[in-house]
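stuck on this chain:
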Amino acid sequence: MSGESGKFRDILVPVDFTPTSEKALRFALSLLASGGEVLVLHVVDIDFVDRVEANGFAKREEAISRLRGHAEEQLKSLIDNVRAERPNVEFEPMVVVGKPFAEILRIARDLDFRMIVMGSGSRKREDIEAWLFGSTAEKVLRAATVPVVCVPG
């Protein structure tokens, strides 16, 4: 927290580029203290990369490179869309590769964030894994050691 009552100095905002994740970013901005920082994180899902390679669409490193580049462009665009709302906030974009829930938790811990704000239910997932084990937001919510705000779609 900071000197401003109820405001945070830094917030981690994982995004998947859906309207729900942009909504979560805007909500996070409302919680930030003046001069605060928001780390806008996108995780390139390694399981998706493995499926791309297994189906012969691209080699692993090529798929990662293309997905990372595309994500960096989308992060820049997303940040540009909201920057004017809070010009006194520092935006830090980050793209990593891994299992989304694990990377979100690792970054929150390693960089000592005090809050995570993320969208929930932004994608209709009807696969058996999601049904059995829950969404990324649910996994983060269960395992996080800091407050997690899930913004509905």
About this structure: The chain has a mean pLDDT of 88. The first helix runs from residue 19 to 31. The chain has one domain: 8-152.
